[in-house]
Amino acid sequence: MADAASRLRGILEQLLGAPFPVRVRTWDGSEAGPPEAPVLVVRNRRALRRLLFKPGELGLARAWVAGDLTIEGDLYTALDRLAGSVWERDEDTRTLPQSLRDPEFRSAVRRLLAMAGPPLPPAPPPEEVRRPRRGLHTKGSDKRAISHHYDVGNEFYEIVLGPSMVYSCAYWPAPPPEGTLEQAQHDKLDLVARKLALRPGQRLLDVGCGWGSMAIHAAREHGVSVVGITLSQEQAAYARKRIAEEGLTDRVEIRVQDYRDVADGPYDAISSIGMAEHVGSERYLEYTTVLHRLLKPGGRLLNHQIARRPHRDEESYRVDDFIDAYVFPDGELAPLGTTVTLLERAGFEVRDVESIREHYALTLRRWVANLEADWARAVALTGPGRARVWQLYMAASALAFERNRIGVNQVVAVRTPESGASGMPLRARVWGAPGPA
Fold it and tell me: pTM here?
């Protein structure tokens, strides 16, 4: 009788209708597949039951998070090869009911059922968010979603993000990409400040302020007063401690506050860095309208946001199963054109759009390296499941940015007054030098 690895590989190729792109090792120690390829390690039969009861991305994710599946060899190469054969098949027009009408497909499913053992669906890993899909993006649901993602321990984020504690795309020198993550994050924050033309005496609202890095940078290096808002209690506590240590408590206020509750405008400038992905399509016009109201006439908004590629049929868009269940509950990505349109509908004049897609791939690879270099401590802080969620999420995201499946853009928009005086330079890429702090 063939070993488990050879049998499983044969079944997978029958299901996919194509060669399986990586080597396979199964629980009996057997291996099959190209010897030079990364190895997909199937540690137990439970991994097969997860795939049977949740075919596609979510079943694979559950098996990965639970430790039923792992990869030996280069993680990026393995994920890149699997993406074309497995994950991207979820976007195929052929549905599971259509597949089940194929005798060869049905035969492979029966063989996989026999190999998987007793047909009991394993419970999802405890890291999976389980909640009804109704009532998205209320103040309460947004607060719960933000807490799930960010309130996992500041020490864990220190491992991943490094001393800068900036959880968004860094801005690397080019070419080639050199320097440290900390310097690249400093350069990104300064790029935002220069695009906003921050100068002493102004008021900045930092929406989704994270651990306070942009607020500190703006106050310390550009002399502005800052209000930073977040829904995460842990982020707010950490940011306030950093601000006190910097001696900036007279210039920076951190609030645990929903953007819909900010009522002390107008502000001279607003930064929204990695925040808009949490807002949701049904709330996005409300979001841009609130930001427009909070800006003084002539004030600038810098919106730094991940974008997906548009679908031919936008009604077919659905949130990625793994991201929604394990990483960003209720998060949504929008095409760049949609974002620009909704900013304009709110009354903004969009003046500049800069894509920094490649920069995010470089940033994510540094974060993965940070996590893997201190893996034992990360696991001790958050548990193995959570650490594996982050490893998979960041590595897969790096590949998505590299392959142009998603992008990230900085949009500069102005609340242009009726006079039409936008205050922008005639050459859009010549950003005004800020005054001394």
Answer: 0.90
